[in-house]
Amino acid sequence: MAAKGSHRASNGRRATGGDHTTDKNRTTGGNRTTDGRRRSGEHRYAGAHRHSSDSRAYSHGGHVSRRSARAAVRQARTQRLAALAVVVACALAALTLVIAPFAAPTLMRGRDTTTGTGSPNPPTVTHATLERTAAPELSPGGIVIGVNGSPTTIMLKGEEYVEGGAHAIDPDDGVLTAAIQTSGTVDADTAGDYTVTYSVRNSKGNLATATRTVRVVDSMETQNGGIPVLMYHYVYDDATPPADLNNNYIAASALEQQLRYLTDNGFYYPSWHEVRAFIDGTHSLPKRSVVLTFDDGEPGFMSVGGALLARYQVPATSFIIANDGNAPQRMKDYATPYLEYQSHSYAMHQAGGNVGHGGRISAMTKQEIIDDLKQSAAVTGALDALAYPFGDTTPDAIEAVREAGVLCAFTTQYGWANIGDDPMVLDRVRIQGTGSLETFIGAIQ
Ligand SMILES: [Zn+2]
């Protein structure tokens, strides 16, 4: 099962390269079947996290085909007297000539897809325990699809696999998350790598896929007690600080320092499903687990911050104020596989209440809150996590959020999210824009 998944994993996002490869293997036959099998084998064991070496395997495969073609021609020349051999060799050579032009564009398209998106260069950082997947690619038709949380899920053998899901958005269709099909099997009782594949089609029929490597390990150092869920707001380019600069803003250079620290030190980014299971006390997380959240879907964060997250391949959640008229377009414009959109409510991010910071949630009935969250989910395509507007909660609000099916809901109260906490009222670690890297490091461990 892992084999099947890995194969699709490496090919899927390259303009349905997987299908081409399969066809090629099937049609070439003879010598090239052997090559084809070897290529498939490489995919089987390479896994999604070795994307770049897969690319090389592909190029290599192409050369092998052409070399085989020349060998076949030579073979044909030396065996002219053997009529049967001539027929066989000519058939092989002809087949190669027919196939080569198709094979080449397939490879080309794969490379074009990678470079054509303007995907940022991966930073040259060492990653202590986790290998990272490829830089973001644009799928056919411009669909952006990404897994939720770390692309390599780490789980302890014998525990239940917690499926983290994926998110997808299309420039024309908007969010496609609900339409994502998930396939693959994880044997949680046997250590090893497994692949889960997520695929979705847009209304034009373009297919986009993303893959998750699930690594079942015999043992690991685990995160004890709780997990830091970081709360950020706005991000600005150092060269153009905002007029109203305050502690809710973080400079791109400061955020980049933090992201580099996280990647250099092998931090793990669980999905919301994993966080919930962890809080419930039913699931272990690797030591050095952390979650990054950014409130409000602010343009500076979406553009500058989103690009940095993609560059460092750090998954994060953007809590979107769904009734912001610009939100749907911004979500499409700045979509990356590393950014998932969750709820900061639909129309509750405004004054009108008399609890806490005065958000209107405290003046709403339970049903009104549930309806608001449903409207929010229609915009973001997900309701796994919620940031209460201004952090305000009431007993009705908490019950509404629970009934709406939210997995994890956060206030602005400072602290870690701890095992045994009510998952509807979780604390977060506010990151002050002017804080030092040492303060950041101290807050997450
Ligand atoms: Zn907010």
Automatic annotation (TrEMBL):
* GO biological process per UniProt: carbohydrate metabolic process
| Top-level taxon | Bacteria
Q: Name one GO molecular function term.
A: hydrolase activity, acting on carbon-nitrogen (but not peptide) bonds
Q: Which Pfam families match?
A: Bact_surface_Ig-like (PF16403), Polysacc_deac_1 (PF01522)
**Database matches in SUPFAM superfamilies:** Glycoside hydrolase/deacetylase
What spans are recorded as compositionally biased (Basic and acidic residues)? 16-26, 34-45
Query: What is the name of this protein?
Result: Polysaccharide deacetylase
